[in-house]
From TrEMBL:
PANTHER family membership: ELECTRON TRANSFER FLAVOPROTEIN-UBIQUINONE OXIDOREDUCTASE (PTHR10617), ELECTRON TRANSFER FLAVOPROTEIN-UBIQUINONE OXIDOREDUCTASE, MITOCHONDRIAL (PTHR10617:SF107)
EC number(s) on file: 1.5.5.1
Organism domain of life: Eukaryota
Region (Disordered): 1-22
First-tier enzyme category under EC: oxidoreductase
Cofactor(s) listed in the protein's UniProt record: FAD; [4Fe-4S] cluster
Native source organism of the sequence: Capitella teleta (Polychaete worm)
A Pfam family that the UniProt record links to this protein: ETFQO_UQ-bd
Protein name, entry field: Electron transfer flavoprotein-ubiquinone oxidoreductase
């Protein structure tokens, strides 16, 4: 609106070529107007990111912190399956690389298991590859015993917001609300966010309903949401685990876990102080020359795999002739800044092989190549790029991964 409040959303234009020209299939986007617009795009939503910046919703808050979760679904032999078994891990193999995080393995029905590794994106060594760390994770005897003789059937990756309530932005702004993982309501200690996202949506729906029922024309800031949010079990749950993430970042896997266990399980999250982590994840990277290179073994094709065969299992598909949905603010930064200082970490933090340094056939010089067709929409590049030069936006139509049973 003219007064700066949110009026609604506009869908993207369809049928635009990679060069920006209108194709025969061109269809302009539509404007959808509403009294209140609720944004619930999931972790690091690109509209949410824009709203936070525009309305300064994170002013006075800790920066949001993230992890990247890489996940696979396996069919395993019946004799190795224990339906309902839950395995959680912490530390290994990430501790050897100077990072924090943990893994999981859940036994589902029909002789299937789902397993994954979450790498905190606060890591400092630019040589680290979350994808390769996940491959190492599967070599642990604890995990390997269930996978041997099995078959990998699905693969995926997604960033998750885990900063805790001290990293939550203001969730209200004129004309709308930011809810769920778009704001960062996940319980980082439990790695669970569906129930908290749903509760934030329920609270938002109730407060919007009250406002509309009372005759509101919309466009205002629903301060009643903040009051209802702080009075809910959702806020209490997030407050209880508020020190978990900062403790892991500050004290490492062993001492951080010990502190978090004491805080949450013994004191029930009622210690009279709150830990903070004021350094954004992207700013944690050290120059490559100051860090030890990490040698990862080649995939064996049985337990461990390469990126491209993994992306194939994610059923990722994008319309090829469309504008790249991974946008660079400055196209020179990858080669002039990130490559000499950080050995261009996008080559390693991306779990889908989207970013490569290749030699240009014509000039013989290095070229920063974006294979956007491979993108599984995990948003890690948007989060971890040290120059904050990459912005993920929604591609045309339903492009992206199509996960079965994930």
């Amino acid at each position: 609106h003219d007064d700066g409040s949110v009026k609604g959303i506009a869908t993207g234009d369809m049928g635009v070529s990679a060069s920006g020209e209108e194709k025969d299939s061109y269809m302009p986007g539509m404007e959808l107007h509403a009294k209140y617009t609720l944004f619930s795009e999931g972790c690091r939503g690109h509209l949410g990111k824009e709203l936070i910046s525009h309305f300064k919703l994170d002013e006075g808050r800790d920066p949001q912190h993230y992890g990247i979760g890489i996940k696979e679904l396996w069919d395993i032999p019946p004799e190795q399956h224990q339906q309902g078994l839950v395995v959680h891990t912490a530390g290994w193999p990430l501790a050897e690389s100077g990072s924090t995080g943990g893994g999981f393995l859940y036994h589902l029905e029909n002789n299937q298991v789902v397993l994954g590794l979450i790498t905190d994106l606060s890591y400092s060594n630019p040589h680290l590859s979350p994808f390769e760390e996940f491959q190492r994770f599967k070599k642990s005897p604890v995990i390997k015993q269930y996978l041997e003789g099995g078959k990998r059937v699905s693969y995926g990756a997604r960033a998750l917001a885990k900063g805790g309530p001290q990293s939550l932005p203001e969730m209200t702004f004129p004309g709308g609300l930011l809810i769920g993982c778009d704001a960062g309501t996940m319980n980082g200690a439990k790695i669970k966010g569906s129930h908290t996202a749903m509760k934030s949506g329920i609270i938002a729906a109730e407060e919007v309903f009250k406002a509309v029922s009372s005759g509101s024309e919309g466009g205002d800031k629903l301060d009643s949401f903040n009051e209802a949010f702080k009075a809910s079990w959702l806020y209490k749950e997030l407050h209880q685990q508020r020190n978990f993430g900062p403790a892991m970042h500050k004290f490492g896997n062993i001492f951080g876990a010990a502190f978090a266990f004491t805080d949450i399980n013994i004191f029930n999250g009622k210690l009279p102080f709150t830990l903070h982590d004021k350094t954004p994840d992207y700013a944690q990277l050290k120059p490559a020359a100051q860090c030890s290179p990490i040698s990862y073994p080649k995939p064996d094709g049985v337990l461990t795999f390469d990126r491209l065969s993994s992306v194939f299992l994610s059923n990722t598909n994008h319309e090829e002739d469309q504008p790249c949905h991974l946008r660079l603010t400055d196209e020179d930064i990858p080669l002039k800044q990130n490559l000499p200082v950080y050995d261009e970490p996008a080559q390693r933090y991306c779990p889908a092989g989207v970013y490569e340094i290749v030699v240009d056939e014509n000039s013989g010089k290095d070229k920063f190549q974006i294979n956007s067709q491979n993108c599984v929409h995990c948003k890690t590049c948007d989060i971890k790029d040290p120059a904050q030069n990459i912005t993920w936006v929604a591609p045309e139509g339903a492009g992206g991964p199509n996960y079965p049973n994930m």
